[in-house]
Amino acid sequence: MADYFDKYLENIPSELQYRQTKLTPNSKREMLAYLLKSPWLDGIQKDIEEKSNKFIPKDELLNEMMENTNYDYGGAWQAYGEDMFGFDPVTETSHGYSTTPSGQMLKAPDHKTAWKQIFMTEGGYTPDPPFASPHPSLTRDQAAQTLMGELEPFDPSKHTPQDIGLGGLSTEYLATDFDPEHITFSDLGDPEGLAFNYPTIWFNDNGVPIHLEDSRQAMAQALKYETKTGKKFPRFLDLPTAVNVAKQRSNMGGASKTTLMNSMPYEEF
């Protein structure tokens, strides 16, 4: 069954849809020569050898990839040249771009990560938590549910507490952090400034809970919600105060009593 991402790709303008770009013979030779010596191909060859204990010469590997591809290497070469792969120094891996600067898709609809680019464009944040985070990435199904409707915090007038594996029925599961628009740093480099509480559990139009386990994803969703609705989550003068209020709210029944937005007035500090 087609999901949000399939329908998105079906409805983008034809000039932005995925296709295999045909290069001139000379341009194709230049691209292949670059790919043969690229860190990207080195990484793929090494990964195959480590996982299957099988060594494949780079020229054979590249030919196989060009013949069985769901990525528009020609389009990437035309758009970016020798910068067609971004290198992540943390994971030490190279990654191809999902689109050209004009927005044309470089990944086919069946490419395993094509949906992630759509989510970042439409959702405003990455479905993958930062490297070394203990939290899992959003699955494609979770990401699709996130985009199918307007996510909102738990509202006792329309939502019911859900068991999402946190040890009982849950409503909001608050996180606390500094407001990125009001954060400052001390002489020692310690963060200071306004803090706020925000939910890590969000509900879509069908009342389905989406748990954004990584707090950075949840904060991005909270800030997006504030911008779109004009509503504000409670702010506090410092982090300890915000943490204490979150604990008190949980002890008093949390969102099952009142929405987080209505738990106290928002003050412009």
Salient structural properties:
two-stranded antiparallel ribbon, alpha+beta, 2 domains, 269 residues, 3-stranded antiparallel β-sheet, single chain
So what's the overall shape? elongated
Number of beta-strand segments: 9
Q: Proportion of β residues? A: 15-25%
The helix count comes to 9
What is the rounded Rg?
23 Å
Task: Tell me the major beta sheet.
Answer: 3 strands, antiparallel
Description:
The longest helix is centred in the last third of the chain and has 15 residues, at about 215-230. By secondary structure, the chain is an alpha+beta fold. The strands form 4 sheets. Strands 5-6-9 form a 3-stranded antiparallel beta sheet. It has helices spanning about 5-10, 25-35, 40-50, 60-65, 75-80, 115-125, 140-150, 215-230, 240-250; strands spanning about 85-90, 95, 160-165, 170, 175-185, 190-200, 200-205, 210, 235. A hairpin with a 5-residue loop joins strand 7 and strand 8 (about 210). Helix 6 (about 115-125) packs parallel to helix 7. It starts with a helix and ends in an 18-residue tail after the last helix. It folds into 2 domains: about 5-115, no CATH class; about 125-269, no CATH class. Helices cover about 35% and strands about 15% of the residues. The model has no long low-confidence stretch (mean pLDDT about 85). It is built from 9 helices and 9 strands.
